[in-house]
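Quick one:
INPUT:
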């Protein structure tokens, strides 16, 4: 942009850091000579990933040229198998728990700066759509309790098997959840992940045929997740940062870990979610939340603690803290 900052890897973070109408961009080939020519004009490099080939190459060249670089956390970190210490000058992390986790795996503590998460800045003033509007849009009966499920990506190829679900496991998750929703007379909303390796038609084929019609599959872009969370009574997922948004909206959470996978977010460990390990415990968790106020109250208390530890402050100023860090690092 006009401040000689390269932002690559996340348009969302770039726009939230500076202004909503930032459209400055530079294109580059992967040739080292081309990258070096561009970097000669830059004061700092900002990225959200220093592991994928292009970003990794840019950061390594910037290091050789003594140009500072900053990596900004843009999602959950918890996959031990794929973790490698950063090669950037500094790393802006969401909160204390991420910092502790990275240091335990060999990251240099003095590189880490806690800023909070820019993606949640707008939550200070953002309000979900009125529930009635969402019910009408998706033909949901107002008499029904609603459970919202954000599934893992429907992928054929897994990069880290210990923290990801196979297609068969995703299918089995749907089968168990649909059974429970039918038995408890709930309306089920399934909000698909933005990126899946199979088509929407193929995903529909995974829906169990159990004579249950009180559900809707919401594709990416069809409705803001924030509005769906605001509408639901219970939120469920395998493990996803979407649960953080549910916590911000004071929604009780049930995690579904039916295959003894590693929960990268450790929600149940901190008591901010109830973990189910099979269909029976899923049903029990949902019933407890619906019928016991003390269970809902305890989840809300622990959720508030988790957010503070994981996201530092939800005060609308995380982008400002990151921008100030960038300015302080410029050569």
């Amino acid at each position: 942009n006009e401040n000689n900052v390269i932002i690559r890897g996340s348009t969302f973070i770039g726009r939230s850091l500076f202004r909503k109408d930032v459209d400055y961009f530079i294109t580059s080939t992967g040739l080292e000579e081309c990258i070096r020519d561009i970097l000669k004009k830059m004061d700092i490099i900002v990225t959200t990933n220093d592991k994928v080939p292009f970003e990794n190459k840019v950061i390594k060249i910037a290091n050789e040229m003594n140009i500072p670089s900053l990596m900004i956390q843009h999602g959950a970190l918890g996959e031990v198998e794929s973790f490698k210490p950063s090669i950037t000058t500094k790393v802006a992390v969401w909160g204390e728990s991420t910092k502790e986790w990275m240091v335990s795996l060999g990251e240099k503590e003095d590189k880490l700066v806690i800023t909070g998460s820019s993606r949640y800045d707008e939550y200070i003033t953002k309000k979900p759509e009125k529930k009635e509007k969402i019910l009408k849009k998706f033909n949901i009966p107002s008499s029904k309790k609603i459970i919202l499920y954000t599934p893992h990506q429907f992928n054929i190829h897994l990069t880290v098997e210990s923290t990801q679900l196979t297609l068969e496991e995703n299918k089995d998750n749907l089968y168990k959840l649909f059974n429970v929703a039918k038995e408890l007379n709930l309306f089920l909303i399934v909000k698909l992940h933005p990126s899946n390796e199979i088509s929407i038609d193929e995903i529909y084929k995974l829906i169990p045929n159990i004579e249950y019609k009180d559900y809707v599959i919401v594709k990416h872009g069809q409705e803001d997740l924030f509005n769906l969370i605001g509408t639901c009574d219970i939120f469920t997922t395998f493990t996803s940062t979407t649960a953080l948004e549910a916590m911000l909206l004071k929604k009780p959470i049930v995690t579904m870990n039916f295959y003894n996978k590693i929960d990268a977010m450790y929600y149940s460990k901190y008591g901010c979610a109830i973990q189910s390990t099979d269909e029976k415990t899923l049903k029990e968790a949902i019933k407890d939340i619906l019928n016991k106020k003390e269970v809902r109250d305890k989840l809300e208390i622990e959720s508030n603690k988790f957010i503070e530890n994981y996201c530092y402050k939800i005060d609308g100023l995380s982008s400002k803290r990151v921008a100030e860090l960038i300015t302080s690092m410029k050569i």
